[in-house]
């Protein structure tokens, strides 16, 4: 109509001598959905004032919507001072309206069983009255809608009766017409109920639905006795892993509710959280309200409902997603868990994520969808999966051999250890892969069975578990000094075989957590990979992959990040092997201790217990540190496998094996011939020399055992290739000279590295904390214990330019101690030398800023100790608050440093030091301001 049309309407009323202008649903003028509505509203407000005593303006609308309408303009309430509220009709008034409409339609000829004011019509009125005081309750319109349902029931009944009686009473409404079928009788005729009972497994879910149906039966009798009814809600949470039948049961559940008269329509509408999320603020509420309004009388299924959580708290952060928060708030405001609600909302998801979501969103959601009444869908048992397999094979027209059935069930059992095991969906995956392999074999003429799947179709290597009993020695054939480990694994195999023969679960008798102790290069990582294959072949794991991580991968950078990181790594390794290297570092700092506590707690949870192999690896003396920090770790890692250093004889044998393997590979390719006679048939003198050199190397703290022998073998091979390149014919010869030379070269190099003199003390850090900090911050190599009063920076001579000599402490006017540069590749620390052209003033200030940075770290470490030792609770809280602020500062600085390193502002790669107004590299010549870094 617009302003012009409104003006014409007002003029017409004035021409008629005045009157009343009634504006229904007036709130639409301010809703923004009506083009020109605000202009019309502003025009009317002026006319209301101008035409007082000439024209009466009446605004009508719903309570909630009119509240926002009055809030649009403060002048509206004063221009419309009289307010008339129309309350919802009472049950008695609804009964009168019901009688009036029936009599009006049929001219007082239609009768009702027990009368139009009798018991059954009173029950109808009470059912309508349960919607009172709720948004959208239609009052008289609701009566009209219900009568439409009553008339449809009557029509269906008359059509059935005419098959037996040609003249039924068309002007009678029976009890079933008015109230719907009795729940007991309705269940007998419900196809959905019969299908639900025929589903495989789901015992607890069927019992829960049966209990709900029994409540409906009890309430039906209570209505007939005009007694109070049992309060219950149709809204439920469905918890379970994928493939457990949540969506299938949701559809059947909705149809059962329709069949027994608890829902008016019964259609099942499936939505995902993304269907509710809008693109702009305010749109999420509109989408949610639209979906809820369109599913009245239906079943609304929100699959993967944990996606409604904004994820802030669960990710260890404080961010909030206003779009998703608005969805939950709208659901809480609209969905009510009361008897008689013509609505059923089902939230589907995995238990852990759903529990976490309910903790992090509007608390009203957990009241409307209590976990205590959730339907829990357990994983199918092996016998149930076998029945599901038979059913799917029958529906697809296939059969399986007895061996194939055994293989597929073993594959399903192994798959259980994977995260989010697919249950019935896993059966579909295996069948699809088997049918594909079967078709390939059929096309190639390798089988004549067109509709029978064999073991090869499901798993081409299905006999691995039968061969696993004799594979361990072969698997570790190329590993030196592993006799005890082989015996241990063979013992596990014997235990598994015995428990299976006794009908027991072998997983309960086999350890899944191990502590690997030993020097570097003794085969800890290699053994982890081979153990993964042994456990996989035995059917204990679904994957032989080893997920390798270090202790730092478990530790967060700020409060609340550590727990999720640990769980994420465990989830990633489910069904496989998780190797945590350098585990001794889990004793350093509060975050590391938190990671250790989280790991200890997770091991005993059902999600991880016996579902993956967890290995803590580290050096023999250092690995005992975490065991002392958390005593619970010892009981959770009872199996210890010690790795010893190789003796000189084993070193010689391993070197010979590696070079003989290179010889075999070369000759298999036909590209060259190689002689390794000096190792295959060594002379006593040569053997003694090599033994002595290996003894010298193994005495060094940096000796890497098999890792260094691999390096030696490559160096000897390269020396042989260089010598052969001078000959016309390619003939490689590994001579005693090459072996001795490379061994002596490595021994001399290691000896020189272990004898690096110390530089000038930094001073002022008597407790040695700076030494520990530098080792972590600048990635320094391990050092021997120093006198606390002389904690100092150290560096390798090989990293210095030839012209630079480490100054003597007694030399006069010596320059300030050079700083260490952080090597982003993780190599040893190197000296940051003063760049050419850097003034004395800049260099001295840079040294002071570096010292200040170290002093802050000393203070931080002191606060950590003070927090643990504080007896006063108030003091402890104050220290914790200061530590949190310090952590935030450290995190921001770490991000800045990472950005500077990634941008390559310092070509040499020196560490960056914070100064007033920006950052300067440790060499002194490169400065980046705060403003430049932000841009």
From TrEMBL:
Tree of life domain: Eukaryota
UniProt keyword list: ATP-binding, Coiled coil, Nucleotide-binding
GO molecular function: ATP binding; ATP hydrolysis activity
ATP-binding listed as a keyword: yes
Key word Chloroplast present: no
Domain called AAA+ ATPase: residue spans: 233-361, 510-647
Gene3D superfamilies tied to this protein: 1.10.8.60, P-loop containing nucleotide triphosphate hydrolases
Region of interest (Disordered), residue spans: 156-176, 784-828
Leader sequence segment: none
Name of the protein described by the UniProt record: AAA+ ATPase domain-containing protein
Coiled coil: 857-903
Homology family: Belongs to the CbxX/CfxQ family.
